[in-house]
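Q&A FORM
Asked by: J.P.
Topic: structure of 3-keto-disaccharide hydrolase domain-containing protein

PROVIDED:
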Amino acid sequence: MSVKAKWISGDPPEELGLYFSTQSSDGVKEYGFVIFRTGEWKIDDPNSPDMSEPRFNSAIRRDIGSVNDITVQVRGSRLTFLANGQYVTSTITVSTDFSVILFAYNGGYGGQNEVLFRDLSVTA
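REPLIED BY: S.T.
REPLY: Here is the structure written out as tokens.
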């Protein structure tokens, strides 16, 4: 799955990206691929809490008008995360049946930000 996210106006949101959830015999598990205006990323993964700390990646674009191509590749039980075509990290999942949520969050600072998500692609 992939989506292009463009910061249109205002201060870039504190974070943006995609969340997806899976249903398994253990219940619902949520994963998130989050990028920050600082050029950092994190993965919200119930199986790997060590990836929840933001880490810098020079592939992440931070300027107004810039577009970030956010991709999650699912191959078997492996999830591979890419930012603008650059490998970020990978992890293991128990299910490949996902629901997808796009989000942009300004960190609760108020004001208005405009983000355009386009070209959402989910392929099996």
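FOLLOW-UP: The chain has no helices and ten strands.
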